Amino acid sequence: MRIQLMTDGGADIPQQLIEQMQLEIVPLYLNFSDGEYKTGHSLKLADFHQKVKKLNEVPLSAAPSPNDFYEAYKKVPQDKPIIMLSLSKELSSTYQNAVTAKNMLEKEEPARKIAVINTKTASGGIALLLHDLYNKIQAGYTFEQVVQHTEERVGDTITLFVLQTLDNLVRGGRISKVTGKIAKTLSIKLLMRGSEQGEIEVTERIRGEKRAVNRFIQQIGEYTKNAENKSLFMTHCNSESRATKLLNEIKEKYSFKETFLTDTGPIIATHGGDGAIVIAFFKDRKK
């Protein structure tokens, strides 16, 4: 690759694409009561799920430090441009720390070319942008062209979430135990999305698993009428069979050019909990 692609631990990317894109990932940190762990390094995904259940707690997440990014950039040859796609700056200080590190290194090595892009999304949304970026590089786009293209694509990115349980939101103190208990009793499911500003917001509260899933699938058609030339990324939290079934239902209704399915990493799983599913795709552009 003539351009080095990077992202952080807030992205959930299929392993085959990580290898194909020669992607470098700067891990985030998770702080449990028994210590601090690096996503994808000192704490693997299976261990994360076990720890959440064993300790009955959700960890606090922390962004990579400016020095973490500095060291990652420094490993790349000076004559190789870097494009870093970060977790939404509304969700983490990851973006700002990545920019700080870029400024530090560019002062030392003025010939460096580093672009840090705030994706305003997370999980599969970042994977979608990286995949599109990679394809443009392969098509011959210059560093400047692909940076501009990706910044425009950020505004086209739709990221939708459906939660099966609110247990982790209760554990993390984001909703009260009473609210969580009522929601569980009434089988209320949350539909969420990434806002234009890059925040995660609740869009609908739906009673019943089937109704929630049907509405989740229906939403796709509100953003695109031309799925044939688009890719869809889906990530799931410890629920592969449910995700596979849902993805098949989506493919029956919408003719996406290609689809990808992978695990949701610890950062999104911390809040989404078991059964959470995320999808990302590009919306139609207004003519």
Describe this structure in words.
It comes from Oceanobacillus indicireducens. Helix 3 (66-74) packs across helix 4 (94-108) and helix 5 packs antiparallel against helix 6 (143-154). The protein has 11 helices and 13 strands. The longest helix is centred in the middle third of the chain and has 15 residues, at 94-108. Helix 4 (94-108) links the parallel strand 6 (82-86) and strand 7. The strands form 3 sheets. The chain has a 6-stranded mixed β-sheet, sandwiched between helices. The protein has a 4-stranded parallel β-sheet with strand order 2-1-6-7, sandwiched between helices. A 3-stranded antiparallel β-sheet has the order 4-3-5, covered by helices on one side. The model has no long low-confidence stretch (mean pLDDT 90). The protein has helices spanning 15-21, 45-55, 66-74, 94-108, 124-138, 143-154, 167-171, 177-185, 209-223, 240-253, 266-272, and strands at residues 4-8, 24-26, 29-32, 35-38, 60-62, 82-86, 114-118, 157-163, 188-194, 200-207, 231-236, 258-263, 277-282. It folds into 2 domains: 4-154, Rossmann fold (3-Layer(aba) Sandwich); 157-282, Hypothetical Protein Tm841, Chain: A,domain 3 (2-Layer Sandwich), CATH 3.30.1180. Helices cover 41% and strands 24% of the residues. The protein is globular, with a radius of gyration of 19 Å. The protein has 287 residues and is of the alpha/beta class.
